[in-house]
Amino acid sequence: MKRFFQPVAKEGSSKKPALSGHSGDEGVGGREGSAAPGEEAEKRGPLKFLTWNANSLLLRVKNDWPEFSKFVQELDPDAICIQEVRMPAAGSKGAAKNPSELKDDTSLASEEKQVLMRALSSAPFKSYRVWWSLSDSKYGGTALIVKRQFQPKRVSFSLDPTSSKHEPDGRVILAEFESLYLLNTYVPNNGWKDDENSFKRRRKWDKRMLEFILQSSDKPLIWCGDLNVSHQVTDVSHPDFFIGAKLNGYVPPNTEDCGQPGFTLAERQRFTKILSLGKLVDAYRYLHEEQDMDGGFSWSGNPVGKYRGKRMRIDYFIVSEQLRDRIVACQIHGRGIELEGFYGSDHCPVSLELLPKKD
């Protein structure tokens, strides 16, 4: 996978024990400055990871940040992967955009950027560095937030090994560390119809993901994020509801495409193929074989309406088989239909902890 990257520019419950805390270096917030990584930490690489679809990071900063900051302080992850940042990329109207930077060329954009960066410059986030992959508008987008002592060797923003560009809508951040690769993705929703923006788009994405996974690599992979698929029946709260779901009465021509996006047979079969051929392990399901109706789902429907209480597990940590025996814990941190631990989003955070690699 080394050829996937552009160099990083230099800058001035479970079957295993629960996640344990450890402190990180203090540093300057945002993208400014960089503490020299400790040789031991750099070699060991990150061991504790968090993924969260924030459903607008700016809204979470404005409305839910004290609670989320406390959660991060206590969990103390080495790397945080965010999906649905929903902040536009830098660049004026009609000009080329820079998806690695936040837009700030209007008074409103500048104000919103300042709000976000102030939050990321405060504890506990001031000891981390941030990478962005952003859409042209307030849609999609991902962020990678890494403790400074675990800085990646390289960061890329595409599933295409020949491309130096970002994926459309900022859906990918791929980081190479000394000991592993970390892939943060916001996978396209399958949608409800067999057109270019729904079924066909998702089929193309799954094909590209399989091709990416099958590329030879000298290091194990951790793939996380909102993968927009519930793999097994145990990954949804109401299987019959999701199997029979329709939009405005539309029924796709192929039976395997029928049902709730994320729980169609076609999506689930393609996901099975990716895991099988890629020799990958679903970390949460590896530790939690039985369904947990209270805390086993990472997405919850609107508390008002027909989706109340309807929940899915669509946020994952998928790891290479060689990491399986090092999994300490993989936890879903939200509970219940009242969205406890969701911090204002419709998704809750999911965490992973690994044991250090034995010499």
TrEMBL record:
Signal peptide feature range: none
Keyword Flavoprotein: no
Cofactor: Mg(2+); Mn(2+)
GO terms for biological process, alphabetical: base-excision repair
One of the Pfam families matching this protein, by short name: Exo_endo_phos
Site (Important for catalytic activity): 315
Annotated site, Transition state stabilizer, chain positions: 228
Residue ranges of every copy of the Endonuclease/exonuclease/phosphatase domain listed in the record: 50-347
GO cellular component terms attached to this protein's record: nucleus
Enzyme class (EC, first level): hydrolase
Entry's cofactor comment: Probably binds two magnesium or manganese ions per subunit.
Keywords, in A-Z order: DNA damage, DNA repair, Hydrolase, Magnesium, Manganese, Metal-binding
Active-site residue numbers: 186, 226 (proton donor/acceptor), 347 (proton acceptor)
Family affiliation: Belongs to the DNA repair enzymes AP/ExoA family.
Name of the protein in its database record: DNA-(apurinic or apyrimidinic site) endonuclease
Organism: Spirodela intermedia (Intermediate duckweed)
Lineage: Eukaryota, Viridiplantae, Streptophyta, Embryophyta, Tracheophyta
